[in-house]
Every structure is written in structure tokens, then in C-alpha cells.
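Q: C-alpha cells for this one, please.
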Amino acid sequence: MSRHPRTSSLVRLAGLIAAASLAAACADAHHVDVMTVLAQGNCQTEKTGVELIDYATLATYRGTHLIGMSESSEAQRNPAHLIAIAPAQFPTAGYGVALLDGSTLTDKLLTIRIKIDRPPADAVLAQMITHPCLVVGIADPAVGRVRVLNDSEVLGEVEIPPAQAQ
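A: Here is the predicted structure, written as C-alpha cells:
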């Protein structure tokens, strides 16, 4: 089956445009691993928003204390930064915060998306103030700032300090 010469040229042109677009997108793409470190329905904090925390603060979010810890030289050169996300306080148990897929890195700004899980309307729940939180770890040196979105709403942003030269 032979194609009309003009049709073949258009098909070839469309293929070249698609390949060039894909190559440009791949050249700008940089995958960043964002790992869930803690996802808890009632963290031991009254703070809300987005903040950079250390391991001792992470322990207090869990209601514990950090007794002692040593880091490897590799961890000191390329530290995992902990970002705490506590969207709000809620009037009952049953709320949670989850990390969604689709984090994007543009320039040095990493945008991550979260979802606030809510209890069913007909659930019988304890009436108490809760502070659900999510703590994520990011160890990529290409990230200079983190923005957290819930739906399209910006919950907050934090600066990531540059790695210290050893």
C-alpha cells in the first residue's frame, strides 16, 4: 500500500515534532524521590503549616524522645531533609494526610501534592482535637525550596539549606 507523497511528509513531520517535544521534556525532567517518613492521625504538635524539622522534632511528633543518634559521613554530605506538613487541627479522630503522586521539580522548586483524608459523615468518632500530620524526606541536592499543595491551595513553602561542604 503506497501513501500519497504529501501524506507521508505530514506523517514524518508529525513524528519529528512528537520526538522533539518528548526529547525536550526529558531533558528538563528531573525525578525527585519524596519518601513518607511519618503519616499519623494525631501528631503531638499544635503547629500547623509546613516546616523543615530535625530528627528530634520528628520524635516529638510521635510522642517520643530521641536518645542519641550518629550519622554517617555520607548522610552528613547529602542529608535527608524532613518536611513536616500539618494542615490544620480537626474536631474529631479519623483525619489523615497522604502524599499523592506527581511531585514536580521546576528550577529548584519542588512541588508536592497531598490529600487530607476525612472520616465518613456517618462515622462514630471520639470528640477531641486532633492534629494529623505527614513528614516527608527529601535528599536530592537539586531541591532548594519545597511547596506543598492540597488540591490547588498552597499550604506552605520552606527553604532547603544548601549542603555543607565537608
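A few notes: The CA atoms of residues 33 and 138 lie 7 Å apart. Residues 31-159 form one domain.
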